[in-house]
Write a sequence for this structure.
């Protein structure tokens, strides 16, 4: 009898174990099918948008700036993300820099201004010497008329040297040196270029700090230093942020010959024709000419005449100003 009871228990246990095994297999199979069903329902990824990695510190004008504090990290992230995904504009900025940085950099160096301030011109004007803002700031360094005159630029009915790349860069250097003499801090100098020295000086005093990064300012000015530092980050590491360029992609510097002019020119189109190029090219290579004529008023101006053979991309560009911009 005891053997019979034991046998019955063994049978019961066997049935129970088989039942558990069958149930487990069913659940596993069902779960697997559900998982596959979910995967089937997920849309395919046709493109990717990846958040750029934010460094713990950045270098600006020879100074290492810790940006691990939440407001600095997030402010830099905003500008770096914007430039990273503002694809067409950022690509064009690098292409144009190949033409204009060789002009700007030696002037900054000669004037004692940190090289990083070339990126201020990038964000101010997108390296377009002819651009004008709604506030009537003009040229690559975006001078207002009164400020341009204050720093030595000629502005008349037929001449606007705010659009003269070399002369406006020298004028910008004068402003930057004056601001640095006041603050002794290049980040504050950058903020002052946007808001004006009066505003930055007042806010530094009222808010009791010595750095523009610690100020509460209007949004445009608050973003300004970070925009400079973010575009620098991309220019120095374009491949890391998805910008793939070759030497052929970059805009080549175009050779010109200089002609000094100290007498009036009644018709610039006729003048250009004498040298075998168009009025349109006259304006492109001399964007400081603001009328169809030139009145010198006793001053001497230098007009750039482009070399004909250099106007074409029959031969691909081979000049690369910064090797970091291109992939081999």
């Amino acid at each position: 009898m005891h053997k019979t009871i034991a046998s019955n228990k063994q049978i019961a246990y066997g049935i129970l174990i088989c039942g558990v095994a069958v149930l487990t297999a069913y659940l596993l199979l069902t779960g697997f099918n559900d998982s596959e069903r979910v995967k089937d329902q997920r849309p395919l990824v046709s493109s990717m948008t990846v958040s750029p990695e934010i460094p713990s510190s950045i270098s600006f004008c020879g100074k290492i700036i810790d940006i691990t504090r939440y407001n600095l990290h997030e402010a830099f992230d905003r500008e770096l993300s914007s430039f990273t995904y503002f694809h067409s504009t950022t690509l064009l900025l690098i292409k144009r820099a190949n033409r204009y940085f060789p002009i700007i950099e030696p002037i900054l160096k000669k004037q004692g201004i940190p090289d990083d301030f070339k990126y201020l011109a990038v964000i101010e004007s997108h390296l377009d010497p002819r651009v004008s803002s709604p506030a009537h700031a003009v040229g690559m360094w975006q001078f207002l008329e009164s400020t341009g005159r204050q720093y030595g630029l000629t502005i008349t009915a037929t001449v606007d040297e705010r659009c003269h790349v070399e002369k406006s860069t020298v004028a910008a250097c004068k402003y930057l040196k004056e601001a640095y003499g006041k603050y002794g801090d290049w980040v504050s100098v950058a903020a002052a270029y946007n808001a004006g020295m009066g505003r930055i000086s007042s806010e530094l005093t009222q808010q009791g700090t010595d750095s523009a990064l610690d100020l509460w300012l209007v949004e445009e000015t608050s973003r300004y230093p970070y925009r400079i530092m973010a575009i620098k980050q991309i220019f120095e590491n374009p491949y890391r942020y998805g910008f793939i360029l070759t030497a052929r992609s970059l805009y080549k510097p175009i050779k010109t010959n200089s002609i000094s002019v100290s007498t009036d020119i009644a018709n610039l189109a006729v003048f250009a024709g004498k040298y075998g190029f168009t009025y349109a090219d006259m304006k492109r290579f001399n964007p400081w000419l603001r009328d169809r004529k030139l009145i010198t008023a006793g001053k001497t101006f230098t007009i750039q005449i482009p070399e004909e053979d250099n106007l074409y991309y029959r031969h691909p560009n081979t000049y690369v100003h910064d090797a970091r911009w291109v992939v081999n």
